Amino acid sequence: MRRFVAGNWKMNHGPVEAAHFIEALPPLTDLRCVTVIVFPPAISLPAARAALGSSSSISLGVQGVHGEASGAFTGEIAAGMAAEAGATYALVGHSERRTLFHETDEETGGKVAAAQLAGLTPVLCVGERINERKEGRLEEVIVRQLDAVLGSEVVGDRIRAGVAFLLAYEPVWAIGTGKEATPSDASQAHAILRRRVGHWLGSDRARELPILYGGSVTPANARGLLAAEGVDGVLVGGASLDPGSFARIVELARELC
Ligand code: PEP
Fold it and tell me: What is the pTM of this model?
């Protein structure tokens, strides 16, 4: 079974550090069943691309894109520009974007469509806050976030036609807190998401859609999470900043192949 290990560097590792990270990464061997993706800051994409050279063992992604292809949007990055700079994936709907930058469910739908149009594989992040979880609203929240994207005919049609799409379940209370979800918490949420993907895209597509877990993943807890029912990979924040710990998580995924 294919597994995914993705590293979200957030606002860390500028161009110089990004190149150093790649040079310091222990060799990632025998990755036939593991897809490794790194999401550097957009400004570091060309340096990361150059440091990777002809190596195809790691794909690059952009942490965010605008919903439009160009225009008067100072400070923003279009999906096509990220693709030109070396990205093949795009994170959309990360909880920090939703919370700190007030991105709405509707905007995430537009960004997924823009990423697809530029040939990037969107990685849609969904997840509940701690109060929502305590109020028993896990399903309501993550289904709402998913529906805002898959409910779009254009996005759904593209995925049905074979355009790649990944989901990441990232409970907000687990991000950057050191409090990871248990493997069974992750399986429960992934099952809800997979059922709902089936509603929009059909059960075959739902069965094969990769759903990653993200939230305080480290080399110490990655094995249990990667082995959990319905978990196809991990999206790693803090622990992806160090080449050794990121490579260790990749190795754990490889061992489960
Ligand atoms: C993230 O930002 O996507 C994330 C999962 O962060 P961390 O691993 O640091 O919780």
Answer: 0.97
